[in-house]
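Record minuted for completeness.

…
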Amino acid sequence: MTLPEYNKTLGKVATDIATKQGEIMVRLATSALTFIHERVIEKGEMADGSKFPAYSTSPMLVGGKSFPTKSVSDKVFGSKEKRKQLEWRTLGEGEGAKRLAILQGGYKQWRQLMGRQTNHVDFSVSNEMWNDINIISNTGDHNQGIAVIGARKDSEKKKLAGNTSRKGDILDLSPSEIDDLKLTYGLEVLNIFKERGL
């Protein structure tokens, strides 16, 4: 290959990279989302490798409507004997007063009653937040080398922000995850060079 041919081919490589940048960014963002899911949901780890703070065991007030189904509620309130064993508090006065029971094991016990794992924090009760988190950047962003992962619905944005505020950054990438993404990007670009015979 002569120098002019090399320069011409190099120009085509640059055009190919610019043309394929959006596709590459979507693949990288998809990989990043997979990394986050595996680390946070399956292991309960923050980007720095430490565990998210454990589920609270501080006593909390509950009523029948604190649980998603009657069968779960019945585990706490399902018989006179069960209700008799509970410690109760009254909130408010008069007709608007509410009698609530103290769930001694707190949020952790609440999750256990619903059959959810409590070994690590995974930010999953209904999974609505995780189901809503996706690539939220647009094609123009991707073509400029930008990919953004986040929640789409306002309700899930609030949930994500609240969880992040209480427990720490959920969607951060670890240094090794960033390195893996850099390597993937480099391989994608290398393939473009190879396709052009360089």
